[in-house]
Amino acid sequence: MLKNYIKTAWRNLWKGRVFNLLNLVGLAVAIACCTLIFLTVFYEFTYDRFHTKLDNIYQIYTVSNRAEGAEVTSSVPEPLTPALKAEYPAVKYMTRSADAGALIKYGNKELDENLHFVDEDFLKMFTFPLIEGNKNNVLSGLNNVVITQATAKALFGEEPALNKTVLLNINNVQQPFIVSGILEDISRHSSIEFDLLVRFEHYPNYAANINAWENRTHIAMIEFNNGYDPASFTSQLTPFVKKHFAPSIEILKKDGAKPNEKGDIFWLDIAPFSNNHFATNLGGVEGNPVNKTYPVSLIVIGCFILIIACINFINLSVARGFTRSREVGVRKTLGASKGQLLIQFWIETIMVCLASMVVGLLLCMALINQFKAIFKSRISLSMLLDPVTLFGIIILFLLVTAIAGFYPALMMVRYKTVAVLKGNTASTKPGKLRNTLLVVQFSLSTLLIICTIITWQQINYLQNKPLGYNKTEVLSIPVSGGLIGEKALKLMRNELKNHAEVASVTGAYMNMGRGNDGSSRSSILGFNFGDKEIRTHIQRVDYDYLKTLDIKLLEGREFNPDFAGDSTAVIINETMARQLGTKNVLGSFVPMYDSVAKVQVVGIVKDYNFRSLHEDIAPLTLTMDKHYEINYIFVKVKPGNLVASYDAIKKSWNRQYPNTEFEGSWINENTERQYLNERRLSGIFVSGAVIAIVISCIGLLAISIMIVLQRTKEIGIRKVLGSSVGGIVLLLSMDFVKLVLLASVIAFPIAWWLMNNWLQSFAYRITIQWWVFALATLLAILLAFITISFQSVKAALANPVKSLRSE
Fold first, then answer.
1. What is the dihedral of CA 222, 225, 227, 228, to 10 degrees?
2. 639 with 473: CB under 8 angstroms?
3. What Cα–Cα distance (Å) separates residue 569 from each residue in 581, 591, 626?
4. For residues 557 and 514, is the Cβ–Cβ distance under 8 A?
5. In terms of Cα–Cα distance, which of 314, 498, 321 is closest to 426?
6. Sign (positive or negative) of CA dihedral 424, 428, 430, 435
7. Which residues contact 423 (CB under 8 A, 6 or more apart)?
8. 508 with 485: CB under 8 angstroms?
9. Which residue, 118, 154, 446, 608, is most buried by CB atoms nearer than 10 A?
10. Where is the protein situated, by its record's location annotation (predicted)?
11. How far apart are the C-alpha atoms of 14 and 8, rounded to whole Å?
12. CA 463 to each of CA 457, 681, 685: distance values in angstroms, whole numbers, following the listed order
């Protein structure tokens, strides 16, 4: 019985092969795209899921309810972790966490590795499998070091690594460490990445900050006892906060901080580590968090594409139903039941869907490398064999088959036998359904076109907005691998001073944008000035900083080696000067540090965007305070041949530091990396819009072919009566053009609401213009008209005698 159903289905599919091929192509493209999209979403949402106790691990953060709004930060003081663990029995494990670069040496081998400072509980909390060593005591010794398998192989080769002594250069001090454990290489699916683990007690300035509750230097994670309700933990922290953070609370009160509904102006809170990959609102979380807008947008666009493909399937199946009405009538006359007809049509649907699924997965395999390159995705074909992924593919197949196949099959089996045998299948309902589905289809396509145009405008605006400094001719070089920043800067100055293409060299604590090292730093200092608290970003710089970056000096002078007192002098920006609020800011003395004398303001610079354009310009203080390290060297080159200048600087670096990788990048590249999520989003919208329009046009082409076939006699009569080719094309096209116009009107408010909300995340943003909507509508109409015209022109040019004879 099933064999007969399949043979009959194959015969019917072959008979209508043109429409079925269009159906198959549209559905296959949609399945390929959706598979790639949903694999990416699955990858993003399963970050860190290999940690067995993930749901019981939380990150601590602080909230200051300032007068201008709540300030959230994940940086905490060093004494916080031991104090919480000592005072709250519900805390099972806690660990501090901070990163740094370090040189590790064994014999003649030296490696530049990513060092992670943690507490002893770290490996008890997180599931990083040990190949050798015991996780319960592997970090019990202060001079123990745990290394990854890749580091062990690079350093020791085939020699046993356990219990070997290595030398680590931490904070410019070389110390011996014993290899106490070897970990499996860290999964790329982990937001915590490192090559070496050492105890937090080796963190720079640890001894000086161990009792400093006002100095926040790192992040901290906490694991509770089994069965404990974490929600009750924060409410129990009020006495702890009042005890240890009293000075911070007093400063906030003086500064006009507003109490929350519980009466607190400063409090501790916790965030699930399971959401760490998306915790862009905290700052200072492990890894490089991704804005949740990115995967959510992927889900929405994937669903849009799938819906559009299903609409195509339904419309084409319904349209073909008119040509098969007599077949249904004959089958019913010969005794076929509704159930048998339903099974017959559904088997046809399953066969088309199954073929589309196979072709779609083959397309997915062929396009996966290009997809990964465009969207910087880490998905792989092996993910298709994951049980969850396989289950998802099966559900997707069943869903598409059910949605796309049920209504057309049901509609065809409900034809009245007598009516269809007389050739009367006219009904307004299928036309209404077809038009409704086409409106939905083009509403989604127009929505994606509008989103594409607006995201492109915003990214173009961000890239071209003047930032107040030179970003095109300045090279940023990270100082990593345990190198001493000041020494590296001095050597590079001497090395490059005779290079004709080099204009100036300087150094800084913070980078501009995000460099090739992937890290970003910030340091905010708060101090009392008069009757209010002043908060400012601190940027350690060296001589020629303003000259190298072409930052405009409004008043005063730049730091100068001829002035011995510049180590206690500062240069501030306009926003910082306004915050101080005094009449004669230049030359005034400011009590920025409690432990030293007041610092003098020797210069005021024009405001420049030292952070991303998501944020307004904040108060900034430039200092030469040596408590802040030189982490980046900036080299300004003369315009002309930037490639040759880059190569020359790289060669100079490699001569000085042959064992440390050169990670230099132009500052304009760094600033563009700040908007990686936005560029991804733009790419998603562009790709989604193109695919949605292509699939919609495939369906529209098939429907126009079907309608022209149904109206062959009408077209012939109109031509005989004198209608022109243009008039017939316009007649056949206008109904669809009206539907596209209606779809655009529906898409407008949705697109405006979505994109207006997205733009609010930028301090500097474009204004949505009316012409964006007009352009999107024009594009949709033009594409629809061109698609329909292929068949309309062919029908209008046909000989009317042949058309009437065929009828």
1. -60
2. yes
3. 19, 11, 12
4. no
5. 321
6. positive
7. 325, 326
8. no
9. 446
10. Cell membrane
11. 10
12. 10, 15, 19
The 3-state DSSP class for residue 270 equals strand
Q: Show the tokens assigned to 537.
A: 């970003």
532-540/266-272 β-pairing: unpaired
Residue whose structure tokens are 């500062």: 570
DSSP conformation letters of 480-531: -TT--HHHHHHHHHHHHTT-TTEEEEEEESS-SS--TT------EEEEEETT
Beta strands in 558-717 (DSSP E): 569-573, 589-590, 599-605, 620-623, 632-637, 665-666
User: Which residues of the chain register pLDDT less than 70?
Assistant: 1-16, 18-19, 283-288, 318-344, 404-431, 481-482, 518, 520, 594-597, 706, 709-710, 791, 794-807
691: tokens are 């695919």
Instruction: Give DSSP secondary structure letters for 214-253.
Output: T-EEEEEEEEEPTT--THHHHHTTHHHHHHHSHHHHHHHH
pLDDT of residue 542: 92
Q: Where are the domains of the chain?
A: 96-210, 481-662
Question: What pLDDT was estimated at residue 789?
Answer: 78
pLDDT score for 429: 46
Q: Which two tokens stand for residue 677?
A: 């999520």
pLDDT at residue 604, rounded to an integer? 94
556: amino acid identity, one letter? G
**Identity at 152, one-letter amino acid code:** A
Give SS3 for 96: strand
Q: How far is CA 683 from CA 360, 372, 767, in A?
A: 21, 12, 21
Q: Please, which residues bridge with residue 71 across strands? A: 64
Residue with structure tokens 């920025």?
592
Structure-token pair, residue 728:
């017939």
Taking the whole predicted model, whether its pTM rises above 0.70 is answered as yes
Q: Are 233 and 181 in contact (CB under 8 A)?
A: no
User: Cα separation of 151 and 114, whole Å?
Assistant: 10
* CA dist., res. 700 & res. 692, Å (int): 12
